[in-house]
Amino acid sequence: MSHSIWNSSGSIYLWWSRMAAMTGKELLQLARDTLLVLAVLYLFTFDIMMAGGVKMDLSKANVVVHDMDHSLASRELIYRFQPPYFQLGGEILDQNEGIRLLDRGEALVVLDIPPRFQHDLIQGRPTQVQVRIDTSNMVLGTLAASYSGQIIGQYGFDAALQRMGLTGEGLAAVPMLVDRHRVWYNPNQKDSWFMSISELLTVITVLAMMLPAAAAVREKERGTIEQLLVSPLTPVHILLPKVIAMTLVILLGTALSLTLVIKGIFHAPMKGSLPLFFAVTAMYTFDMSGLGLFISTMSRNLAQAAMMTIMIMMPIILLSGAWTPPEAMPAGIRQAMYISPLYYYIEVSYGILLKGAGIGILWDSLLGLGLLGSLVFGFGVWRFRRQFR
Amino acid sequence: MNPARIKALAYKEWREILRDRLFLALAFILPVSMMLIFGYGIKLDVENLPFAVLDQDRTAMSRDYLHLFMDSRYFDYKGHVQSERELEPLLADSKIRFAIIVPPKFQENLKAGRPVAVQSLIDGTFPFRTSTSKGYVIAINNAFNGKLLAGFISRKMGIPPEQAAALAGPVKVQLRYLYNQEIKSIWSIAPSMMMFVLLMTPPFLTALGVVREKENGSIYNIYSSTVTRAEFLIGKLLPYLGISIINVIILWLMAVLVFAAPFKGDPLFFFPASVVYVSCTTSIGLLVSLFARTQVAAMMITVIVTIVPAVLYSGLLVPIASMDAASQFEAHLFPAMYYTDIALGSFLKGIGAGQLWGRVGALLFYSGVLWTASYLLFHKRVRS
Lengths: 389, 384
Description:
The complex is a heterodimer of chains A (389) and B (384). Chain A is α/β, with parallel strands linked by helices and 389 residues long. Helix content of chain A is 66%, strand content 9%. In chain A, strands 2-1-3-4 form a four-stranded mixed β-sheet, sandwiched between helices. In chain A, helix 4 (72-78) links the parallel strand 1 and strand 2. The longest helix of chain A has 32 residues, at 191-222. Chain A is elongated. A four-stranded mixed β-sheet of chain B has the order 2-1-3-4. Classes of the chains: A alpha/beta (389), B alpha/beta (384). At the A-B interface, helix 2, helix 3, helix 5, strand 4 and helix 7 of A face helix 2, helix 4, helix 5, strand 4 and helix 6 of B. Strand 4 (127-134) of chain A pairs parallel with strand 5 (171-178) of chain B, so a sheet runs across the interface.
């Protein structure tokens, strides 16, 4: 009786020591590839720094004016196009010059003010201002349209009030909505918070898929897998250490970039629980490495694995809301998004890091991530084991 | 330089590609599927924003006001809540992206001619979405204000509502969207996608080319042969360049036929410019492959030099013009930005060599630098 207990505890000990030895081997192999270590370090630090410097907002877009009125009223309207969004880029004298400037990308907005603009305003006749916008870039085009619409709308409203003599005292009698918007979680709308966290999540996704896939295919390509197969190791011993080692590396890198870059340089608030974030990241990394293992079973060499990883990874990254608003996706893709682990991971990460949400609020996204993840990972392991039969 | 030897090497490389059926298939499937998925998938339009309302007034007027939001195609109405406390978890869980709070006595105050403050809470995590949704909210508020003012004028001056409406909104805006009249993201996305796909895939084709031979040891055959360095590099690159040029044509056809993006430019300018671009991007892979020691490292470095610039520094999502000085400088270091201008200019603006020759020159210079670097980095003698 006691013998069998000793025996089983011995085999458990053996099981774990094999596991530890194999994990150590994977880490050592990674550490010896200096260039790879540098690349991973770069991804977690400078790369995220670079991404944080990118802004998706209109800043000092060039506005060119074609003013056919040259009156007090037209000048007042023109001077409302001010930084930070716009800057005045001078006046032009004919219509075609505007098109030429737009063609060459030297102006983003061309404002055409009709003749008799002030005259019509005073007479109370409706008048029309034309705004031509270069929309070849979606982000700039939509924002420029929205902001210039706001400026001209407000100008018209003010002009109407002025014409009715409703200034100062009289204004108090006019029923009016006052817009009081409050932006939560990122009150100054710093792009760097969003961009750096988005980039970190992208980097985690890339590494979590690529590193285990590469580690598994490399053994096949070099033939060292034969050595492992004749050893007393089970497929789990060959497989799990790869995933554990890469997960450790990724968690370490995440900690580095959170403290050094995202908090250190961009001062993003870490509102929620960091242990929760790391636990979720570990879970997500496990899931995605399952996908990586699946790829490794499909490919015979690294070139194939690299191409397949890109093919699976890029749609996951770009269609999960890492860089574009997920709500606007067309219907079919929005449904597909719900089976992407990254979609849940993104929501949970922003929830924890910027919004300070805890398990109580995020449980449904966490459940989605857990269910999908164990499915993906289980599938990857199943495929990997099957190829040894 | 001996053409026969280059031909032999290119043929050897081509046979190797042909024998790896999966790789060959992926070399063509990858660009096409990326173009399809992203062409349909990337949408920067801010639409279907989920929102909730807290109506503390519950009168005809507050309902009228809220209906302006509910009826808009930009918003997706999720329901009413009873108190402000309920809004916080909804926002934190991303169930809604913004909320409108109508204060008590909304109708009473407005009828009495007093200003009323309407609050909106907006999720700020994604600043582009935030500014756009803020713009929508302000536009709706302005429209409602215009209506209020028209009603006020009509009552005060005793004139019919239509005439009062004209007085309340004297300046009409006529917005004209150039190059992309319906602001269809697909029109500007399809040409940008050509840039994106042609930056992502060619380097991955070539990235493992040399380093694989190094890792397998077959590079020693080259070292001991009469092939010169330049011949080896050219022979290695040619088949991949060929694949990439075929992909240029396939992607162009997809942009025009599948996505119906208008091609207004000069094909005789666009195609040579595209060939220069893919020669640039394939060379990136070759260069990486030369200085990496292992295939894994080569793969990671290719990710670094392609994915990030392709997404962030190319003008695909983020316009170069609105970046800060440091990022603009970085953007100029990658070939993506120049080709984005060439593709958008050729497709949407219909401009050609006259305006864009500088961009092509930059790409030529870029591939020249990559080639020189590759040539200098490749040695036929093993360093001990």
